[in-house]
Design brief:
The chain is mainly α. It has seven helices and three strands; from the N terminus they run H-E-H-H-H-E-E-H-H-H.
């Protein structure tokens, strides 16, 4: 049949290879909380990771068995999934992962790259970048723009102790004395 709606990305692999790839990426995501891959793989992995965390939030025997079937090393990662991650996302209604587009990995392979990360974790890139933007605005003595304020609201909304953690990150970034274009210290020219 030509055309029509595609329910998922096939990733140029047969079914068993695609499922193995996605299981491997989800296992790495739960273990490291941030992975770098191609954009289509990240988007498909995001779907499976969201379902896995939803299973963890249910926290019953059936969901544990289903999660065991998805993860490659369940004996290592089930305590983290049903412990730390379940508590972290208990109040969040969805959207446990984030896909950030990045530059291609190499100059020869110009495929779209992306970083897939768990939100509100220790390696949350948007949290750190928003804190850096606020620290820069404070150093330059100007108010933050609407986009920065919206990002601040987003990254602190469901994080426990979000505003105090954000302020601590702003102080930490401000202490790094990062320079560059647009700073008061750098010569313009």
């Amino acid at each position: 049949m030509a055309g029509g709606l595609v329910r998922y990305r096939h990733l140029s692999r047969k079914s068993s290879h695609r499922q193995a790839l996605l299981r491997n990426l989800v296992t790495a995501l739960v273990q490291h909380e941030s992975i770098r891959t191609t954009w289509p793989k990240a988007k498909e992995t995001q779907r499976l990771a969201e379902k896995l965390i939803t299973l963890a939030k249910r926290n019953n025997e059936t969901s544990r068995r289903k999660a065991t079937g998805i993860l490659y090393t369940p004996h290592n990662l089930l305590p983290k999934l049903f412990g730390e991650l379940r508590k972290r996302y208990a109040e969040r209604p969805g959207g446990y992962t984030r896909v950030l587009r990045t530059e291609p990995k190499s100059q020869y392979d110009q495929g779209d790259s992306a970083i897939l990360e768990l939100v509100d974790g220790p390696r949350d890139m948007r949290f750190a970048m928003t804190a850096a933007a606020v620290a820069r605005d404070q150093r330059l003595g100007r108010p933050s723009n609407d986009l920065t304020l919206m990002n601040r609201t987003k990254v602190t909304r469901f994080r426990p102790g979000g505003n105090s953690a954000f302020d601590a990150m702003v102080k930490r970034v401000a202490g790094m004395k990062l320079g560059g274009k647009g700073t008061a210290d750098a010569p313009m020219g």
